[in-house]
Write a structure and sequence with these properties.
By secondary structure, the chain is mostly helical. Helices cover 43% and strands 0% of the residues. The protein has eight helices and no strands. The mean pLDDT is 86.
């Protein structure tokens, strides 16, 4: 999902790896939202809504709201629709990546996985090893040319 997001140009608006911070004059927050720190929950309340943002630019309910359309028209940058550009499998990869990057996947509280996830956040492991430790980030000059994930 991350690689596909990079190929589709998502990070041009949503910031490097989806961290946000890209100026968007005329928008409510004056920036394009990022995927991280559970920001996604402010905009989408289900995976289906995330899918609609990707394929149609916004969920149907929002697109049908005149005040929402006016607010979007006032922005310098608007979410494009990728319907016809991404396959069903690619759409699911993007949704999984966005959920992972947003912090919407959380292990059970008090579990070893939760303690490990906290350590990974504390040490910034995702900056190199990717969300959920999946790896794949470029590392020119290394043996394989990318940073490995934690498994495999």
């Amino acid at each position: 999902g991350r690689l596909l997001a990079a190929q589709l140009g998502c990070f041009g608006c949503h910031g490097p790896d989806g961290v946000g911070g890209v100026p968007n004059p005329g928008s409510r927050w004056q920036t394009v939202p990022g995927f991280g720190e559970q920001t996604l929950m402010m905009y989408a309340h289900s995976d289906d809504e995330v899918r609609e943002y990707i394929v149609d630019g916004a969920p149907a309910a929002r697109r049908g709201d005149e005040s929402y359309r006016e607010a979007m028209q006032a922005q310098a940058l608007q979410m494009p629709a990728y319907r016809g550009f991404v396959s069903a499998a690619e759409l699911e990869d993007l949704v999984a990546y966005i959920r992972a990057a947003s912090g919407m996947f959380t292990p059970p509280e008090g579990s070893a996985a939760a303690r490990g996830a906290q350590l990974a956040r504390d040490y910034g492991c995702a900056h190199c090893h990717g969300e959920m430790g999946i790896g794949g980030r470029p590392n020119p000059g290394s043996l394989k040319g990318y940073i490995p994930g934690f498994v495999g």
